[in-house]
Amino acid sequence: MAFQASCVQRDLGIAGSQLADWHxxxxxxxxxxxxxxxxxxxxxxxxxxxPEGLWPSEIGTLLQRSITRLPTGWTRICIxxxxxxxLEYDIVGDCLSTNPLENESNxxxxxxxxxxxxxxxxxxxxRWKDAPKHYPLAHQPIAEHKRCTLAxxxxxxxxxxxxxxxxxxxxxxxxxxxxxxKRTNVSEIKASxxxxxxxxxxxxSEDVLYILQPFPGHSLHDVxxxxxAKLANSHAKVLFVLYQVLxxxxxxxxxxxxxxxxxxxxxxxxxxxxxKVSPRIADYEKNxxxxxxxxxxxxxxxxxxxxxVQQQIDDVDADGDDxxxxxxxxxxxxxxxxxxxxxSNFDYLMELNRLxxxxxxxxxxxxxLPWVIDFTVPYGKFRDLSKSKYRLNKGDDQLDFTxxxxxxxxxxxxxxxxxxxxxxxxxxxxxxxxVYKARQTRKEVLCMHVRSKWEPNEYPSSIGRLxxxxxxxxxxxxxxxxxxxxxxxxxxxxxxxxSWCTSYQDFVEKHRCILESIxxxxxxxxxxxxxxxxxxxxxxxxxxxxVCLHLVDKHTNLSSYGVVQLFDVPHPRRRCNPSIFMxxxxxxxxxxxxxCSASKDVIVDTQQPFxxxxxxxxxxxxxxxxEKACAVAEDDGSFEQATEALDDLDNGKMRTATLQNNxxxxxxxxxxxxxxxxxxxxxxxxxxxxxxxEEFNPLQVLDEFEALCxxxxxxxxCEPKTLKREVKVPDILQSDFVHRxxxxxxxLVAELCFAAKLRTMRPEATLIERYKAVRKLxxxxxxxxxxxxxxxxxxxxxANEDPELLTDGICVFKYDIVIHGLPPPTPTQILSPHLxxxxxxxxxxxxxxxxxxxxxxxxxxxxxxxxxxxxxxxGDLPExxxxxCSEGVEIFLPFFVFLMSDNSxxxxxxxxxxxxxxxxxxxxxxxxxLQRFLVAAYENCCAGHDQLCFYExxxxxxxxxxxxxxxxxQHVFSHIIHVVAGFEKEQHSEEDEVGTAVRSRVLLHxxxxxxxGSNTPEIAEDTVAxxxxxxxxxxxxxxxxxxxxxxxxxxxxxxxxxxxxFGVDDPVVPxxxxxxxxxxNKSSGSEVSCEADxxxxxxxxxxxxxxxxxxxxxxxxxxxxxxxxxxxDTCLEANTMFAGEMPCAVDVEENGETAEPQDISNSDVKKxxxxxxxxxxxxxxxxxxTLSSKYVARTLLRILSFCYLGSxxxxxxxxxMEGESQVGIAAYQAQQVSGDRHAEPxxxxxxxxxxxxxxxxxxxxxxxxxxxxxxxxxGALKLNxxxxxxxxxxxxxxxxxxxxxxxxxxxxxxxxxxxxxxLPILHVFTSSSISFPSGVQCRSVLCQKSMSLMMLIxxxxxxxxxxxxxxxxxxxxxxxxxxxxxxKGDQCMVRDHGVGEADNEHPGMEEMRKVFNxxxxxxxxxxxxxxxxxxSIEESIPNRDLVCQLSSxxxxxxxxxxxxxxxxxxxEDPVLATDTTAQSSSILVNSDDFGSFGxxxxxxxxxxxxxxxxxxxxxxxxxxxxxxxxxxLSLSGSPSQALDDGLVKQELRPSERVLAGNxxxxxxxxxxxxxxxxHFNFNQVKLQTYTGHGGAVRSLCVWPNEDIFLSGSKDRTxxxxxxxxxxxxxxxxxxxxxxxxxxxxxxxxxHVEAVQRVASCDGTLHIWDCDTGATVSxxxxxxxxxxxxxxxxxxxxxxxxxxxxxxxxxRFVDTRKPGLQHEFSLVxxxxxxxxxxxxxxxxxxxxxxxxxxxxxxVLDVRTGLQLRSWQAHDGEILKIKxxxxxxxxxxxxxxxxxxxxxxxxxQCFQLRSxxxxxxxxxxxxxxxxxxxxxxxxGTSGNRVGVYPIRTLQRPGGSTRLLPENxxxxxxxxxxxxxxxxxxxxxxxxxxxxxx
Length: 1891
Hints:
This protein is an alpha+beta fold.
């Protein structure tokens, strides 16, 4: 590697600090500009630039694979370096591209006949060539001419053909021109070598070839090491990867190049399982130079080149290889050396880190060593190595809590892989790494990774503090690098070391000595078990509190780092000469001399180490250990040879005779017997015993040796003994390269299967070493090879043969010329569809073609590439999905997810491709995998023609069907409803003066209410002089960054509260004409609380340049205010919603021409809102009353409040008056504000809901919601923006619904309206102690809308009832003038605007003075005076004199300005602006006969009396003048417009769906429940009855959208019914469709999700279309004597069913194909009875069959293997149902309902009933786990019970159905989960819908 790096530095000019080793290649960090110059075919002008400002350590970090973010302008490349001197040999044979079997063009569309012909031809040719070797010839044959080609030429030509790039010649002195080469089309290049890592450039120097390739990313080795779940549980994924590898090999061979000894590190993969192969060109090199290479002609070489070549030859002769890696030993030898003390702890741990993939300098995956002492005492206190550092730091209690908490959360959570039980997260985090190296790392890097603010004092100051702070392990630098303690920061001191160290070097040496000490070495194996060993998994990890998150979370995201388990057996202990072997023999009384003599022979010197002076002796001894360890494994545990090895390990040679003698002597002493020949001793001495040390274990050494043997056998990859001797071959043939490629492919496949067992293999292992390791595992672990690839592995590796290994050949061994009738294997041969070497699924070619086209489109730079790909896929996708199985869909899914997440094609993808893929996935998988991307598309979409489809009825209906009703309503529907109001955001600069505006842009999506952090695009500000905002150069807004509109002419259907009837929508024109107005504007802007942006995650705004609050120069409005209505309205049904509605007329300018059309953004927004409103109204009818109220009404009510959020939503809308035309406006209609335009379509939808389901919606849902909004503000001392918006929404909604209340309902609700809503609102805006966040503006708007509401109520109830009901409200309203007057003083009462105020005055008082002024007094007093009369108003308004005085003052001011009635003009004060049109143009005169309660009204007009009214003379004069001019009050938007008499009172049209009876009772109860409540409540409320069957109903099936259901009966029919509410629940409904093709009684009906068909069975299976009733196909049992007993549908994406016949066979049906597909036999034993019921797991993994004998059998759907069978019940099983992937419910005639764990067949729940449970269903509430489910059981005694799964043991709980609600015997029941209703079928043919 060092020599390769030096070549790169010399020829390419890349500094050594920018280079790193990467699996035999060179990884370089280079600038993109420098690389671009090389890619363009020219030599760079200078050497590679160095990164400025980066330290060498930082550059090394950037070269690590775990670092994904690089500085701008820099990239990483991989450089393959091939030495020409290693290519100086000849290759014999034809080029690989000339092989007919490898020719790609010959493989396309070949028939089986042509394929067999080519096979025969190849076999004949091979046998003929091989014949001379086996048969003697009569004469000497003519010498065959061998075609030889220099390897260098072969490689160069093949590389240029593969990459279609020329070689750029480079040299040290000058630059040569590029070799001419024809470049093909980019797309063609990509298509031809898509699965090959591309080459950026091919370079050639005098002695080296360079291949520059991009940094590839994640490899297949990373997948199986760090993300094994990516390929787990799916053979198809592995096969698809291998399929692509073979395709890449075909492409490489076709170019004439060999792939080399491919490893898992040479195959790169992305998240979508698309792979790229990097051929190992370096494998062409012959490391040992041939004699011909030494004698090459050097005459043409320069002197420098000659010297370099000679030096290289000398180096090879001296060292053999310049790679020091080759000297590394296998782990088995290294372990033996470490155990016997020949390898240091430091070196051994570093080697383990290297094998685990840890890399020096990688902050995410740095090598780790243990903290061995804690530095709390002098010379440290040894740490407990049997516990992880995390455990020591956190404590057992904390780890137990973390593990238990995550375990409980994972049980209750519906999200997978979110809560996983674990103790620790990592061994060394990147933050800890940077804290460790803080003294040697730049501040910028530390601020980026540790904490953003530089605080040097926050970093640990000493090594002791650092060790106690961190829960992570240590790093090697603290044992070997003194520089890590020295700080490069002036404000951060050096890392302090303990006082017992004199210097940093001294600490490092002592720290290293402690690591090598006996105390650490004795226990280091326990730390290895925790960090790299068997305590990382299984029960041992739980016991050790060492469960690592990375190993158990089953993550599928690709990663290049993580925790790796190297060993699965305990690590052997290091022999550290325990003290028990160094003790003197124990003292024994009376036997001292005897004991001493015995000890001389017994005690063995175990302290003597191996002879370090003779390493060859050590190697021989270790070889003996390895050899005999293997012998132990092969001899079934015999330890005879192990004992001999143990004896040989000790250098002190023990004599066998002496050992036996001493053993016998010792045993005699211990056992009380004398040794032979001993006499004269007393009897007492024979019974004397001596005690040995407690820790003494005479078998300790043997136990340690056995542990070492077990460990060696487990991790050692020993060479098989059965292999034949190795031979040499003279010539290098082209076929040898093919053989090597195929052998490498076979080894690679085996390594995929044996990944966990091969982790200890050296990364640099050669192909023959890998082959030997795999051969060993094949002998012992053959069953671990997956079945689909087992044959190809055995064939390619000749596992059943003993091939001759080649020591000096290219390949490991040579294949026979014919193998099983076929030529030697090639990639094309394995890929051939005519062979079954690897059983690739039939859909792989189509799937591979799709992946190729996808990658080509993704890599093309054209903007339209991906949209064109999606458009083309629209027609091909159904065909692809038609042939895909579930595993194929799983492979296809990541591609589709990418398309959905790509903003450029997400709309097209969802529009054209979402429906077919969601049908294939099914509702469960669609919600799981695609729902969040669908929601993101709704959040990010903007108004436009393409997005309209998102809100159309048909598309939304498809979404509902694809996602499932519950998921759609809970997660998607709210995003669709939000667009009804048209939301946006407006931002104002703090530096803007009054009159400066910012362009607003529309965001048509509003996030869920209450969420924060909406992704709002930045707003471009383009301002011009005068404050008007225009686009650059007068252009329209840029649609790519958002849409904007001027007017929101949303709908033509209008109601009484809209400006379309009372007046034309007007642009926002605030006028800044005086200082007071300017002050008010500034105050409002400054008082807007930031809380609005924090609390609300929605964007509400309206307007653009023309209506976004733009001030104009001299008070004049620029531009036009005309509105435009689409003549061809797509929402025609809206015109009939309200009585008397009329479309808006198109405004005309003065010259009679139509106004100029608005920009396209306005048109798109209008169409979008119309479409959304139409869709919402349609869904209101489909969802039914309860779901509509829960999900539609509640969402719209929340949105209504947010329509008025923000001060910009409180700006008044005014109309520019043209000519003499004047517009009359109702006195009770306040002037519109900006928020009203957002609220208009929301109110439309709310009223439509009331039209559909009747008046109870208004009285029981809307009015309580208004009371709730008001109650949140009435008692508050301070308002926030959300509360003030709620008040405005409440007033607007109340004014909207009052006209639609009937007289009776209004009387019933009047007290609630006044006391719970109106009076609290009046108290809020008339209180001087409450200030509004939006200032005066909001108080003014709320005041005027409340005044209009009071006028409307007075008009409804009449004069007679006003005094009785409204006097308190009127008094409270007009009391505000007194409060404002008391705060002003006498001078302020005469003037409109007070000057000066107290410094300590409450802000609310200032707002009161500005709102309750003379202008408002006139606007309020005059209409109420005309309405109530003088007498009534005196009683209702106590401060009448003050109000009359203010009103007279204002009227006199108007008379002083003009003698004629004033013309409507822009208000002088935009903040205090009131409806001057209503004030000056319309005066209501008292009418005692007005009102709907016994009063009298003439349409919507009030006749004004001719004489003055009132005591005040000024008022009388003014009223006389105004009454002469305007004698009639018009309530329309135009004087000439035909008026309707129902503006004050309107009636809801009658409908059959109006709530009444039981439907009303159930609706009223259900809307009171939270939609997130997880329990099913059965109240036995009968809602509907369905009659029509002539026999008992035996099966029920509810459609996923819960609007229809099907029933199968004994009358041989299947009927389809509608679930819409109708009437009061007493009517009996008839079927919508009847299927009559059955010949016998139907016992099963079910919905097939994958194909959207109905499956019904009467003994013959029928598949039919529920829309048309047409039969699609039928399936019968293969024998007429057999019948189908049970049916179950496989979940999507599997489009099939499983049927059980009377011959105990399960047969599988694919609804897309004719006939039966395959069958599995059920083996349940004799007397098992017939199959009664079938159940399939939710994921389609297993199917269970229940027998009449009570036996349950579970089979694997994929293999047919019987997973488990058990005796579940004593009686006949009636029904079984899969609750989840491991839970099965069963009911039987033994009166029990049981729940079983399928994994072990154990019972987990039990319910015992007094009657058999013959029918049951499951209900899942807020959660989706089994513990959140409930079972609803029905018995033959007409009892229905609801039981939670957790407490199935509780008795009782059932309810008997009342005879008046249900007649007959209960036969079947079904659940409507979203609507929380039950369908109950009886034996009399009727079905009841109950709640």
